[in-house]
Design brief:
The protein has 65 residues and is mainly alpha-helical. The chain is 77% helix and 0% strand. Keywords: Cell cycle, Cell division, Coiled coil, Membrane, Septation, Transmembrane, Transmembrane helix.
Length: 65
């Protein structure tokens, strides 16, 4: 009976440690994605779109040749 309780306790401790490790990795990934999001949200999107609209197309379609 003692070994059953000891094994259940060991499994619970191992599961807790694995859960903490997985949680730490998930939080790290979320932090990276949040930094990327903040970097993208500070870009001047309307200005970039205006620059692209001003560009002239320099290529021709194959059907026009």
């Amino acid at each position: 009976m003692f070994y059953v309780i000891l094994s259940i306790l060991a499994i619970a401790i191992i599961a807790y440690i694995v859960g903490m490790y997985i949680r730490k990795n998930i939080y790290k990934d979320v932090d990276k994605l949040e930094e990327k999001k903040n970097g993208l949200s500070t870009r001047p999107i309307p200005e970039e779109i205006a620059k692209v609209k001003k560009l002239q197309m320099a290529w021709r379609n194959r059907r026009e040749i």
